[in-house]
Amino acid sequence: MSRLPVFALFAACTSSLSAQWIPLTPANPPTTGNAAAIAAAPNGQILLHGGYLAVTESAETWRFDGSGWTQLVTQPSPSRRTLAEMAYDSARNRYVMFGGGVQSGFFMAELDETWEWDGSAWSLSTAAVRPPARIRHGMAFDSVRSRTVLYGGSAFFSSLGDTWEFDGATWQQVSAASGPGPRSQVAMAFHAGIQRTVLFGGTSGFGVDDTTWLYDGTSWTAAPVTGPRPAARFGANMVYDPVRGVCLLFGGYDALVISLNDVWEFDGTAWTKLPATQLHSADSAYAFDAVRRVVVCVPGSAPFNALTYEFGARVDVRGTGCTGSLGVPTLVAADAPRLGQTWQLTLGGTPAVAPFAAFAFGLDSPVAVPLDAYGLTGCTSYIDPLVLTVLAPVAGGSATVGLALPASVALFGTPVTAQGLSVDIGWNPAWLVTTHALAGLAGW
Known about the structure:
Blueprint: E1 2-5, H1 7-13, E2 22-24, E3 37-40, E4 46-49, E5 52-53, E6 56-57, E7 61-64, E8 69-72, E9 85-89, E10 94-98, E11 101-104, E12 107-110, E13 114-117, E14 122-124, E15 138-142, E16 147-155, E17 158-166, E18 171-174, E19 187-191, E20 196-200, E21 212-215, E22 220-222, E23 237-241, E24 246-250, E25 262-266, E26 271-277, E27 285-289, E28 294-298, E29 308-311, E30 314-318, E31 330-333, E32 342-348, E33 356-370, E34 380-393, E35 398-404, E36 415-423, E37 432-441
Parallel strand pairs: 1-35
Antiparallel strand pairs: 2-29, 3-4, 4-7, 5-6, 7-8, 9-10, 10-13, 11-12, 13-14, 15-16, 16-17, 17-18, 19-20, 20-21, 21-22, 23-24, 24-25, 25-26, 27-28, 28-29, 30-37, 31-32, 32-35, 33-34, 33-36, 36-37
């Protein structure tokens, strides 16, 4: 396999575009992303319940498998609600949902129910002791201690500052010696790398906070963060990437209720700002798909709320290849282009007698360009401008190249498109046929 660094390629491909949220178009998408409860299982299955549906709360349950949404209809099922929270209990393989509310005139009727989804049915917990009813709280599953952790929220216009844990049978309030104090609309996730629940931001109704809090199962402590950190905010969203061991923080609002569109990551010690933007959408639902390594977002506000978005490194097929003596050659990527790693591409279906194959790299062309005028009859280019062409030897009808991507956060979200060219002696005037293109977006 041929390997080469691509500093020059990425420097040329870097544009003013930061990492983008890619809109998906799955059939039958949910329309309940506005303030819905959401969580993801380690196998990538994402569950969503409730939220606003038109002018009232929703009682719908939906599942996303990475390609499409399915509405799940079972009885019993949670009643309509919004502003609930959900976490995935990986010790018991259960989605745990608590709280939420139903609007009643000018007031919100908060709920104190604990519901669990086992993959096929909902069940209502009969725990005698449970947290008081609330909305806009934080929840995360501590996979080290096998506890769902709940913090704060609000009830009847008052912020709460209590900590609760659920082991699947009982809720227990934790009398922490110190803590973030009464606040709602916090961002919260469990960081398995440091074995702590991470909490950021929130509001008590009289201000917002920029402290990073860590919970170890006994007490909350303010993390000794040095260097840059997110500005004070409330209503942000946080998910945990177990592959890289970082918490990702998205958006929120500042003290003036101005929408923030920045993206940060926390490695357990320090915050790093990504050159990426947040969707301008309030009360959206976020989850991390650990199988495909992307953040999935169901936006909460029009006109985005009928869509599903993904954030992270990705690669998509662009166009089609042209027919050679052995049919249409193929181009396969082992993974999405990830910074600090090697992006491996394999061109297959080339004649064994061909001495080499070529890999072309550049930006995605807005218009497919026919190559008949250059002797590649029936072939099309999907790259414009062409930045780099790499030759690789053919062995057994295939050729592989590995591109060493720089581990630079400045290149996060850089688009790069690849297309293969197979030598096919005497097939057309140019003796070359092309594969489809692979449009990649660099990320972690």
